[in-house]
């Protein structure tokens, strides 16, 4: 997402707003459109040239209502605009594309495996990933947070899932391609072909793991042995949920990191307020999540004729909940376009709301708190060091390149240098 606040005025031609086009987020002004929609068209409809259509909700209350209520708004027909109008082959197999009770049966055991308590033993691994990520700060003039951050969740999720380290770079690339197939990063293949190719490779990868006879002691092994409401988990369920876990982690977390660092570059006064206390860092991380809203939307289908903000919604309609808009709703957030590291309360919906609330939120929070705790301890301030480029996607509000220079605190360079040397294998 190119912008974090509207640049245009309040007069927006809502008939001309195109929320489907990925370029709206890389080159346009979605915040101006969302603000006008929240004010004048809380249920807004768009029809694509091929006749497919969807309704959009932009207010925090409506976004929460749609995500919370699986009886009125189902996830089984797909939850992303990229598959609008088609059937979702993952329906009833993948947590994210199922409703209770199927969803609950899949979610309960996985939720336990990914809880704060279960992840406590993983803290040293995550800390090591954080240290590796920031070690180059001591060595390089400019640090491309976005480029380096792409591999950040892959490292801790890859380790948790027991995936071989040599596969991580390719898996990180494929997951980004799956959510931003229109990005020029994917070259000649860009577009629907890139999406299909990425899905195909990821599913093949996980199908091979799911079928392999082994007794692995990691998250994939846990999934393969999982009891789903009194029965053994199915192979397809293992494949889809491995895919979903990796995608969920890889395509969102890096952008929470880069958008927060970018906010620190643009609002040095806010960064200077941070003293490094755990509580203060945790509060700042939540503001970074609200600011970034890395998952831009999630979709549902209405199961009945109903209403949102007093406007009718018809049974069968696709309803898209724009999280990026809900997180700037002036009805809920005072001064919503202000980045405030001490914002409290902060009822952001960056992790969603209701039964599908991000199952990876504890892992993401642990990693982000550790990362920003370390950065505040070592870095006095961040400065821009080159042009910022943005991901072209209607789903992920992402940054592709964000070169920054870190001005280190006294002693930090030596500490980081020691870390970088230790990470370099001896020849
Ligand atoms: C900053 C990081 C993250 C953000 C912003 C984020 C955002 C979200 C959101 C908004 C949802 C709700 C989807 C819906 O309502 O349909 C969700 C669900 C999910 N996320 Fe995350 N996520 C993050 C990190 C992670 C991580 C680290 C993992 C994996 C370990 C993960 C795996 C999942 C899965 C599997 C679901 C589906 C849960 C369900 O359907 O019950 N996410 N995420």
Describe this structure in words.
A hairpin with a 5-residue loop joins strand 1 (43-47) and strand 2. The model has no long low-confidence stretch (mean pLDDT 93). The termini are far apart. The protein contains 18 helices and 14 strands. It has helices at residues 23-26, 30-40, 60-68, 102-113, 116-119, 123-134, 145-149, 152-161, 168-179, 192-211, 219-224, 235-250, 253-266, 268-272, 278-292, 323-326, 361-378, 412-423, and strands spanning 43-47, 53-57, 73-74, 143-144, 227-228, 231-232, 297-302, 306-308, 311-313, 318-322, 379-384, 389-390, 399-401, 403-408. Helix 13 crosses helix 15. The protein is globular. Protoporphyrin IX containing FE binds at residues 67, 75, 79, 95-96, 107, 153, 157, 244-245, 248-249, 252-253, 256, 294-295, 298, 323, 350-352, 356, 358-360, 363-364.
Give the overall shape.
globular
CATH superfamily: Cytochrome P450
Question: What is the count of distinct domains?
Answer: 1
Question: Residue ranges: pLDDT <50 for 5 or more in a row?
Answer: none
Rg calc: 21 Å
Give the structural class.
alpha+beta
Overall pLDDT, averaged? 93
Percentage of residues in strands: 5-15%
Number of helices: 18
Give the names of the bound compounds.
protoporphyrin IX containing FE
Helix content: 40-55%
First-to-last CA distance: 42 Å
CATH topology: Cytochrome p450
Number of strands: 14
CATH top level is: Mainly Alpha
Strand order of the largest sheet: 1-2-10-7-3
């Amino acid at each position: 997402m190119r912008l974090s606040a509207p640049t245009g005025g309040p007069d927006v031609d809502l008939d001309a707003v195109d929320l489907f086009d990925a370029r709206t987020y890389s080159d346009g002004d979605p915040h101006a459109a969302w603000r006008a929609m929240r004010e004048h068209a809380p249920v807004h409809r768009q029809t694509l040239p091929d006749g497919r259509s969807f309704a959009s909700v932009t207010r925090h209350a409506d976004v929460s209502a749609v995500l919370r209520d699986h009886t009125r708004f189902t996830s089984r027909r797909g939850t992303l605009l990229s598959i609008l109008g088609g059937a979702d082959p993952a329906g009833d197999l993948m947590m994210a594309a199922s409703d209770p009770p199927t969803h609950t049966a899949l979610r309960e055991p996985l939720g336990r495996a990914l809880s704060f308590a279960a992840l406590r033993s993983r803290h040293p691994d995550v800390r090591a990933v954080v240290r590796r990520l920031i070690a180059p700060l001591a060595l390089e003039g400019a640090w491309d947070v976005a480029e380096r951050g792409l591999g950040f969740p892959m490292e801790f999720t890859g380790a948790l899932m027991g995936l071989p380290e040599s596969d991580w770079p390719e898996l990180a690339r494929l997951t980004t391609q799956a959510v931003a197939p229109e990005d020029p990063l994917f070259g000649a293949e860009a577009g629907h072909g890139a999406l299909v190719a990425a899905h195909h490779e990821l599913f093949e990868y996980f199908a091979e793991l799911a079928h392999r006879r082994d007794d692995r002691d990691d998250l994939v092994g846990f999934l393969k042995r999982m009891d789903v409401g009194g029965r053994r988990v199915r192979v397809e369920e293992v494949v889809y949920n491995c895919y979903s876990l990796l995608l969920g982690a890889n395509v969102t977390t890096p952008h929470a990191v880069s958008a927060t660092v970018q906010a620190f570059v643009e609002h040095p006064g806010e960064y200077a307020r941070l003293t490094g206390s755990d509580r203060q860092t945790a509060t700042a991380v939540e503001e970074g999540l609200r600011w970034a809203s890395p998952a831009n939307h999630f979709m549902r289908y209405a199961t009945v004729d109903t209403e949102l903000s007093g406007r009718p919604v018809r049974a069968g309609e696709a309803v898209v909940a724009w999280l990026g808009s809900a997180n700037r709703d002036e009805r809920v957030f005072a001064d919503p376009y202000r980045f405030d590291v001490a914002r409290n309360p902060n009822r952001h919906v960056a992790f969603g709301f209701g039964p599908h609330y991000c199952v990876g939120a504890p892992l993401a929070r642990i990693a982000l708190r550790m990362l920003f705790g370390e950065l505040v301890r070592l870095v006095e301030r961040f400065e821009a060091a080159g042009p910022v480029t943005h991901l072209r996607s209607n789903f992920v509000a992402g940054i592709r390149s964000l070169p920054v220079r870190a001005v280190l605190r006294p002693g930090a360079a030596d500490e980081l240098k020691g870390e970088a040397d230790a990470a370099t294998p001896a020849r």
